[in-house]
Design the sequence.
């Protein structure tokens, strides 16, 4: 999404993270995780670090920054982005990995609590504007937004809804706008593929089956 | 350390993190953690985000940046800084929190493995220079460096040595230089106080006593 925002063309190489290829092990030996951006022959790892790198290297066609220009707004975006990585991602991943229904319920509730906090963050950050830091998609939109297709996968698999008008009206309207934005459209992976991957992960880990 | 590097004067307000005060709860309601920087009446939270904010807001007397100017070097510094937060900090904190000697041994070994990885990182990043990203203290030096007085506390409490010439020659020489640098001297907390705090934390959590 960040490369698209900057109008940079790239080659996308799919990696099976349940059967890691040599390229991934070579370019991210420390974490062995995707994504990895290879630029000028050297690897960049960790999603948020890659997005900041892209923002610093390419000015983009219209010169728009992904991170806000103001230091306080940048810090706020980084604060909530770190919150997503530290709290949201492990919470919903825990739903898949849970080995009992009780553990799964606990992780669902944890995810709901984190999403409720993000609803408040959106109210504070956006101040009535369309996206987290203004009128166009920025850093925090990308960081929160890349969880949305997983939410859809979790809804299909477990019947839980994390973002909806009744519970999180601001996030629900934002998610709609984000999905239709130039950054996300045609790039965000399909929820079908997320479901397929999640089922493989659960089988591999011996997770509890979906109850419904 | 970052404020000192920029020549910015500040008021330091001590917080007892085992008995959190109203100021901390007011200014960091999400994580309820130190440090918090209050600037222009608004709070900034999370150490690494605060340091980047300070770097962006204050140019410093000599105009020196804390983060490197080059985007790839910035990304590298951020990568290893995230590694310290994600791997090093929980590993050594786990030594204190361990409820059995076996768990403690496991966390000591985990910490040693993470430090060994940082020795390799220092070799790669510094390329023979005095600090992680060049001839003067920068972002990654601060992030790694603020763990050093805890290492000293752990050595006194458990007799384990993480950074020493025999095992990690580059980090050992770097730690010496860092401790004598203008950024760290007179600012890094005393290991005695770290030991005192660690003992309180262990008593509070019902951790296993130190075996030696």
Sequence:
């Amino acid at each position: 999404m960040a490369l698209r925002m900057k109008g940079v063309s790239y080659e996308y190489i799919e990696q099976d993270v349940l059967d890691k290829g040599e390229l991934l092990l070579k370019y991210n030996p420390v974490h062995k995780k995707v994504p990895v951006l290879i630029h000028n022959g050297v690897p960049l790892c960790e999603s948020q670090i890659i997005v900041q790198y892209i923002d610093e290297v390419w000015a983009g066609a219209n010169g728009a920054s992904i991170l806000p220009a103001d230091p306080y707004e940048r810090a706020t975006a980084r604060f909530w982005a770190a919150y997503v990585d530290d709290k949201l991602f492990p919470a919903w991943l825990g739903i898949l990995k849970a080995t009992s229904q009780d553990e799964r319920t606990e992780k669902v509730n944890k995810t709901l609590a984190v999403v409720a906090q993000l609803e408040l963050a959106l109210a504070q950050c956006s101040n009535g504007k369309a996206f987290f830091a203004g009128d166009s998609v920025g850093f925090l939109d990308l960081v929160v937004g890349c969880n949305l297709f997983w939410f859809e996968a979790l809804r299909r698999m477990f019947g839980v809804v994390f973002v909806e008008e009744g519970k999180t009206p601001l996030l629900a309207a934002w998610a709609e706008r984000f999905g239709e934005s130039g950054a996300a459209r045609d790039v965000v992976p399909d929820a079908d593929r997320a479901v397929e991957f999640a089922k493989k992960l659960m089988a591999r880990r011996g997770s509890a089956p979906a109850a419904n």
Remarks:
- The CA atoms of residues 50 and 187 of chain B lie 17 Å apart.
- Chain B is about 55% helix and 5% strand.
- The beta strands of chain B are 36-39, 42-45.
